Structures are given as structure tokens and as C-alpha cells.
């Protein structure tokens, strides 16, 4: 069965349930190739942009504002 194998070309390892599913390209990967960077995800730019915006919003919400007396 090819369905239970990693989608990375040349890898025949078994797919890791839940954490092996890439939310950006919708393919299934083994533990070694589960991260977008390691399986050369075609939607890596989208992934990086989403992470950047999430981090940026978090930092802006935690920004200290000087009180004017």
C-alpha cells in the first residue's frame, strides 16, 4: 500500500498519524519529513508568512506603552 508511506520522493517510511499531515500541502509524511522545511513543501512561503504574522501580532499586543504623566 502506497497510502501508508511517506510522500517524500525516495522515502518508504511509514506515515506518522496526526503530526505527519502537512497543513499546507495536504500530504502525509514520516517523522523525518513531517516539517515543511524537511519535505520542501511547495507552500513554504505561505507557512513562513503565517508564522511571521502570528508572531508579529503577538509581539505588538505585548508592547509596552510609556505612560504620560
From TrEMBL:
Cross-referenced Pfam families: zf-AN1 (PF01428)
AN1-type domain span: 1-49
Molecular function GO terms recorded: zinc ion binding
Keyword line: Metal-binding, Zinc, Zinc-finger
Database matches in InterPro entries: AN1-like_Znf, Znf_AN1
SMART domains, alphabetized: ZnF_AN1
Record protein name field: AN1-type domain-containing protein
Organism: Piromyces finnis
Highest classification ranks of the organism: Eukaryota, Fungi, Fungi incertae sedis, Chytridiomycota, Chytridiomycota incertae sedis
Amino acid at each position: 500500500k502506497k497510502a501508508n508511506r511517506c510522500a517524500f520522493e525516495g522515502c518508504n517510511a511509514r506515515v506518522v498519524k496526526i503530526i505527519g499531515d502537512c497543513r499546507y500541502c495536504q500530504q502525509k509524511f514520516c517523522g523525518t519529513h513531517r516539517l515543511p522545511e524537511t519535505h520542501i513543501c511547495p507552500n513554504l512561503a505561505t507557512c513562513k508568512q503565517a508564522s511571521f504574522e502570528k508572531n508579529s501580532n503577538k509581539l505588538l499586543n505585548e508592547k509596552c506603552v510609556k505612560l504620560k504623566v
